[in-house]
Amino acid sequence: MKIGKIISVEYDKFRVRLFHSTRNSTVNIDGKVYYFGNIGSYLKTSNSLGNYIICEVIAIADWISKDNQAYSNYNLDSSREIIIKPIGTLDSCRFSMGVGIFPSLYSDVEIVTYKDLDLILLPDDTKPIDGIHKQISIGYSKSLINYEINLDINRFFNIHTAVLGNSGSGKSNTIAHILHEVYRKSENHAHGAKTIIFDANGEYPSAFVQNSRHNVNIDKVFYKPNIKEPTNGCIPFYLPYYLMNLDEWLSFLMASERTQKPFWDRVLQESYKFYKIFNSKDDSERFANYLKWKLRQMLYTIVTRVESDTSKMTAAKGAIAKIRDLCISMYDRIEKQVADDVQNFLDICTSLSFISFGNNNNSLAQALSIFVQTEEEPLYVYILDKGNNGITLKKSSQHKNGSFKQINEEDALKVHNEKLSAGEYFDYQYLRTAVEIVLLEEESMGNLHIRDFISTMLSRLDFFLNNPECEFMRVKSDKFNDEQTYLSEMFGISDNPERSKQLIAIDSSEVGTDILELMTSVVSRMIFDYRKRKFDKDRRKRPVHLILDEAHRYIRKDATYIMRENIFEKIAREGRKYSLFLIISSQRPSELSQTVLSQCGNYIVHRIQNEVDMKYIYSVLPYFSDDYTSKIKQAIPGEALIFGNCVPMPLMVKVTKAEPAPNSDNCIVNEEWFRLSQEENK
Hints:
By secondary structure, the protein is an alpha/beta fold. β5 (about 40-45) and β6 (about 50-60) form a beta hairpin. α6 crosses α10 and α6 (about 285-305) runs parallel beside α11 (about 430-445). The radius of gyration is 36 Å and the shape is elongated. The model has no long low-confidence stretch (mean pLDDT about 90).
């Protein structure tokens, strides 16, 4: 039905004068009522090729002018005008954004019917074929009464998506509703889906409880860190420390990458060596042998590096004293006989570190060779005599009072050559011991300020070792042998043909920002590494979607991350190639990484009133226009502007309310303040 003609054509808008016979803003066509006189409704005109140009009403005016008489020949003597903005072009079978050929003056303007909208919004093959669903409902058009808006599943989920809006604007509801639509499919359930929600506020478990009407075959898991047993539907979440790579350790400890990285690498290696010692045959003797060998190496470095005997012996006594302190904490793990052997070794080393008139007479240097086993069987070393000229050591095949067993250097080197591989288990309880060993080695080489240099790193290590917030990381067994086992058991990510854990939520509401950033980054990095190992067709199978709630907390713009290389920026750039996708949700778009936001192909933008956020969105998205800003500012909770790959043209939608809803409702203050007490109700 024609309602008027174009009387002015500009690049971004057309001016339309209505027919004098068009008296109302509604029209009935084939029993359906269409509203065209309201902002946001759709009209169409045609160009010289006969293609329809779909337009959106952006302004309406009703005024009286002498110009009306000039348009009377075209039946345009009405006082009503409409300004419309061109959106795209509809030919006989396809809609495309943008306008190639513009309409001419006095082209007719017509109502856009539901049939036209179906051509634009609904492709021909919307019905499931062989159980493969193609669409999900997102809600209803704000401009077209009772017109349901559907999203193409493939176009929505095969690229990164941003869900933005102020607090309380409906972001959590939108995500929950979308997941309801996916997991409620009945004819053929979404057994191949894998959705992991990093739930920063603990909102989502309530949306996916038993009465959520999801397909019974959907496996849902809700995790929460630092709980010992199932609580409120959540089960304990673990992130074993030994699955962190070296860079992640450095980031968590706030260590300097260039200078402190080698130090921490040696600490991890030493921790692994102690773990291997205490999980092998004759572990007490291997520990004692290795520790004596380590101290001998330090003493050798000291006597060959330092010039003055006084300085040598001072440094030697310091190293011996610190090893002695270190042993006190380890004696409960070794047999008494072996502990006595170590104690005797330390006593003899202390005795050899004497100074007589400023001279040691090379007593310590000469003794170091006697410490090492040269015979087939180790001998026992003891002090034979303490004279004015020094100390005389003696070797014996029999144990004597105050003696120690010679160092088996071959066995010590076997322990020394044990190398920790990425993701391999080691006992975190040896970390402090390992730190002291590496510190002593550094100090023996003259690096006397090393303790001051790594003080921040050691404080962060103590935080990991002692703080309850890190308890979920301190897994005390090798339950998860490697990254692959961890991903399989915790997230159901594996090559097993039987899929499990389709919907996973991790409630991180009770962990701090540092731990949240570490947890999300390490898990995402392991998943990304797993997906990168896929080749050819396998890359396109078993996609994984990460939903990042409150994303501005760990993918910030122009900020110093705890994790130096933000894994989400890497996934945003490369994840699509490996079927790993992000759905980011944020109430502060201006704090989001520009890299991540610009890589999104779909946008669901709820109400945003902060001018800084709006300007940032405008600057990041090249096709974002001023009229989008007006729509977003005027949206009410639950309404959103949707644009991108998932819809043929930008749509203002009233998103369907999720049932059950996520736990994100506001407090009703007056009811809480003035609610009658139980006694008053009685």
